[in-house]
Amino acid sequence: MAEAAAAVLARFSEQVLGLPLPVGIRLWDGSTAGPEDGPAFVLRDPDALRRLLWRPGELGLARAWVAGDLEVDGDLYELLKRISTLLWERDEPGSRTAALRRALSVLTTPASLRTVRRTLGLAGIGLPPAPPAEEVVRRRGPAHSLRRDKAAISHHYDVGNDFYALVLGPSLVYSCAYWQSDPSSGSGDTLERAQEAKLDLVCRKLALREGQRLLDVGCGWGSLAMHAAERYGVRVVGVTISDEQAALARERVAAAGLEHRVEIRVQDYRQIDDSPFDAISSIGMAEHVGGKRYRAYADILHQLLKPGGRLLNHQIARRPVRDEGKYRMDPFIDRYVFPDGELAPVGSTVSLLEEAGFEVRDVESLREHYALTLREWVANLEAHWDEAVELTSPGRARVWRLYMAASAVGFENNAMGVNQVLAVRTGDDGRSGMPLRRDFRGASPSVPA
Locate the Polyketide synthase-like methyltransferase domain: which residues (predicted)? Predict the structure, then answer.
């Protein structure tokens, strides 16, 4: 059975996808397909094959991985790079059935064909395996309503603060760091130093000064709010709709003795009613807003700012596509990682901010920085694997390892980018308050507590 299945996979790739298998395939009884050197998929049982053939492409592979039916032998990053061109999704049952029929045509005997069909649950016999428990099963209400957004955020962020501390390290910053050099080169740059450099870069771009009021939208565990208050002397309102994030952020603020300068709220950005603010930071939050609501998001932030106030919008972007309306996350990310998340090209983001009344003054790409950051997070997860599994579940830990490694490859391949967009709400007289020349490299001030 397994030998026949290996032949099906090879045939599927060559005849349906038009390419030879780029990685090795090893099945549960020792049968193999594809190249013998380099990384390989290890299918531990027939369920792995059923998942791959019922949903060929990213979602089927992810389900097999998360369920533990599929492992990787060799370099995970190299394997993901090799298969990136083969991942595809087709929702039309007819197309999938035709693809399977052509793949199964490699089998020459009726008996072997019946065996494979019976095992895979084809031709009306059986059903595809149930998705792993970590998958989002049901979504209620309109996309990006207050209720549905809170549920989506909870799915991703309320999985345990201790788990995130293992992955992110002491900085507890869940967005790309700002590196001086590649940490693998032995330069001495560490994740914690690079994250502190990113926090300070944000504060310098916003030109924060003592006594100002900063709104941090999507404040996470409070790292930027604390950095801005402690180093720049500003008063900060940090908002998140994750209950677990807010609880730990408040504990960290109290431990640092910053309660008089930092307020952490469980609040949606659409519910803020105590403007104006001198500056707004939105770091890794706008991906959750949704394309249809992005202009409203930009309008709200513009209204919350004082004239002359600055916005720093730090956001992941995807490459432009032919259909400008299709910016949903890939199937695996949408169902297991960031439900309802959407990525848009940086040009679309800049245009919508401008339409809302902002003047965009600077755009900086940090694409390579995010690839380095993700590799560090994966290394942290792998180094504390048993503890991470105990804190969450084997499936959840596998989700995070796959999504972070695949995202690192995406940034390295320029399939995705991440950009800091600095914008200003100009005054009625058109003045921006911006210097004639941009220079964000200056040292941060030291403000006494």
Answer: 163-409
